[in-house]
Fold this sequence. Notes:
Shape of chain B: globular
Number of helices of chain A: 14
Distance between the termini of chain B: 57 Å
Low-confidence stretches of chain B: none
Largest sheet of chain A: 2 strands, antiparallel
Distance between the termini of chain A: 51 Å
Order of helices and strands of chain B: HHHHHHHH
CATH class of the largest domain in chain B: Mainly Alpha
Oligomer: heterodimer
Amino acid sequence: MSELIIALSIIMVKVTVVFSVLMLMVAYVPLMERKVLGHMQVRHGPRRVGWHGLLQPIADGLKLFFKEEIIVDHANKGLYHLAPVLYMTCALALYAVIPFGNEINILGRVIPLHIADVNIGILYIFAISSLGIYGVVLAGWSSNNKYSLLGAIRASAQMISYELPLGLSIIGVVMLAGSLSMVEIVNAQENVWFILLQPFGFLLYLICAFAECSRTPFDLVECENELVAGYQTEYSSMKFALFYMAEYTHIIAVSAIAVTLFLGGWRDPLMSPVVWVLERIPVLGSLTIQLIGLVPPVVWFLMKVISFVFFFIWVRATFPRFRYDQLMGFGWKVLLPLTLVNIVITAFIMIIV
Amino acid sequence: MTAFFFFPIAIVVLISASLVIFFRNPVHSALSLLLTFFSLAGLYILLNAQFVAAIQVIVYAGAIMVLFLFVIMLLNLDKVKKERERHPLQKAFGILIASLLLVVLGSVIASGILYGTKGIYTVEKVAAIGNTKAIAGLLFTDWILPFEITSILLLAAIVGAIVLSKKEL
């Protein structure tokens, strides 16, 4: 019995830690976005609240908490309240299978640093993220507003269309790792990260991930100039904030999945080609190897995820938005065939080598 | 452990499945059908069929129900509802057919056909090979012909849909 209680409390502690770190990141990624966008557009971004705007997320949170909550007439009340909760829950549930570090030893107990190692890890992620669409669709429908409904319809069409190439772009990784479990996939990247073996797959995953998160250049779902703000037009106060938070949770989740599948997860960059190069550099090379070895795996994981999030922001500052028919045409006529070609080529090479 | 999870999930399945037909609003019906699919996936997990559970959520809850909702929202069925007429014999026929179905289902369950002989894939064996590998192995060896025929069927449906929707090819 005590064994069960210990096991349960370990899981609870892990969930709490992951949740707290995640919420901290969700609070500060918007600030990072505003700062990075600002500097890319040669301005400062927020810098009034705290040192260089460091307390801005707290100020924003307080403001949203105290805003008036407006529920529109003829809104479908139950679903109107359910939608943001559903969206946030689905975004959070994604983190259950992401391994964020190697095993650690506490008091003679080996604790693996992932919440759950499901043998269908990738399928679990697809299942949960496909449920996330309902949050958006219901929000748009229940708020009884034309623009919201149009946003929701765009969202559902876009997410269904891009889920397919997203899933197929990962098949290459699954074939190389020979497993659907996220932990096994990270273990399979011990010698070389999959981005080197699957550069094409990584690129395709990247494009589809942007579409799944409905970020620029695929943010037609909330397109301010055509649809006001899409599905979240009628939401105010904390419900609006919940959508906002869920969006950033989703971005971080997609980054964490990309890091796990293609960038070696929590592994340090000492894969065999890098070591081979470093060993040929006198003195400095071995020093670098030692320095890299000192950094704990969790820090590598967080660093990779944050750089990926930075990439998301960078793209937002760089690219204009797609037109809707272009978006659909691109998804079905370009991305889908390319992912299939990627799978076939991967299979051929795997058989030959 | 299994019973602890089975009964709550089973109750959710039954209630949400009956709500599908009792709700007046088609969007609510669609959502309770979604809940039914989702809890069915829970039952599959209790049966050690994780792969089927994931596919159930991805295909039914994630794709098919989204399309259902999509169509319901676009059609705006609120207006159609008021014009729905009731045939006087509708109820009597409904009860007759439902009770016939009950008799058929009841006799099948009572006869014990559903508990056929046990196959070679025990829980331990599936856990050792891995759920996905076991299914893939069978699907691409013993059941390759039905698998391919199903895919041709789906292909025909896709081509048909494109032919119907495109005015000029």
